[in-house]
Amino acid sequence: MSSDASVTPIAEKLEIAPQTYQESLAARSWDVPAFDIEHIGDKKSQYSLVIPVINEGERIRRQLQATHDLGLSDLVDTIIADGGSTDGSLDRNFLKSVNVRSVITKTGPGKLSAQLRCAYAVSLIEGYDGIITIDGNGKDSVESIRDFARALDNGVDYAQASRFVTGGKSENTPLSRLLAIRLLHAPILSLAAQRWFSDTTQGFRAYSARYLLDDRVQPFRPIFMKYELLAYLTVRASQLGLKTAEVPTARLYPANEKIPTKISSANAHMDLVNVLFSTLKGDYHPPNDTRH
Count of CB atoms within 10 A of residue 288's CB? Predict the structure, then answer.
C-alpha cells in the first residue's frame, strides 16, 4: 500500500453530510451528469457493485439472478447505472426480488463514462470503502465478485479482471477482438500504466475509495463522457504507486449469437483508439498535474 502522505484519508473527505446528493456534489466540486435515483433496499455492505446497463434484456436479468442465487447480493450492494433502458428489463419488482439496492438513471449527457460517474459519485457520498464494476451483458463470471471483494479487503486499490492469467478462462472470443486486446489495447495501456496488464478491455474491475478520492485522480470531470474513464482509471493507480492486481475471471461470449457489445460502429472503434493514445499522452490527468 502506498504511504504517500498526499493521499487524503477517506473520513476527512466524507465528513460533510449535506441534505441532498446535488448539494453533496457541489460541496465536493464534482462534475456529474444529471441523474435520478431510486433506492429499493438499504445500505448493508462496505462495497458497492456498480453495473452499467442500457437495454440489456434477459442478459442483465440472468446476471442479477445468478448474483443473488450465489449469495453475492448479500456480500455487496448492487447499484444499477442505467443509461436510459426502455426494454422493461429493470422491472422494480424483479430488482427487489434479487436484492438490488439502487437504480441510478442518467438523464444528462454522455455514455458509459457518464453513467459510471453518477454511480461512483453516489457510492462515495454514501461512504462505500470500495466499488466493484461489472458489465451488465452477462459475459463475465459473477462468482469472481468474491475475489474482487477479497482484493479490496487486502488493500488493493485497483484490481483488473483478466481471462488470460492463470485461473482465467476465455470462450468464443472473436479473433478480431482477441488480436486487438493482445496487440494494441493491452500494450498501450500497460505502457501508460508502467506495469503489465493483460486484459485491459474488461470493465470488470474494482477500485478502493482511497484511489478514487485521491486528489491526483479526480474522476468527476466532464472530460469523461464515453469510454475515457475506464482507460484512465486502468493506468492512474500504478502511475501513482498505488497497489494494483489482476484477478482471474472467465469471459464467455455466447455461441451462435450476436456479440453483446455497445462498441460496434467504425466511429466507436476510432473513439477507442483515440482514447488509448490520449491516455498514453496523459491527456486525462487532472489540470496542472505534471506528475505522470
Answer: 5
* CA–CA separation, 264 and 268 (whole Å): 6
Could you tell me if residue 33 is inside a domain?
yes
Residue 163: closest CA among 194, 138, 141, 184? 141
Lowest mean pLDDT among 38-42, 71-75, 256-260: 256-260
CA distances from 78 to 28, 102, 144, 216, 258 (A): 24, 7, 15, 28, 27
Let me know the angle formed at the C-alpha of 163 by 135 and 152, rounded to the nearest 5 degrees. 65
List the one residue out of 225, 268, 20, 26 whose CA is nearest residue 108.
225
What gap in Å lies between CA 262 and CA 245, rounded to an integer?
27
User: Is 282 a domain residue?
Assistant: no
Structural domain range at position 94:
10-173+201-222+241-258
Strand-pair partners of 246: 160
Which residues neighbour 4 within 8 Å (Cβ) at sequence distance 6 or greater?
Answer: 240, 241
Give the model confidence (pLDDT) of 52-111 as tens digits: 999 999 999 999 999 999 999 999 999 999 999 999 999 999 999 999 999 999 999 999
Q: How many domains does the chain have?
A: 1
Tell me whether residue 31 is in a domain: yes
- Phi/psi at 279 (5° precision): -65, -45
What's the grid cell of residue 106? 442518467
What type of residue is 284? Answer: Y
Average pLDDT on 41-55 reads 96
Burial of 6 (0-12, 13-18, 19+ CB in 10 A): exposed
In angstroms, rounded to a whole number, what is the distance separating the alpha carbons of residues 277 and 227? 13
Question: Residue 190 pLDDT more than 60?
Answer: yes
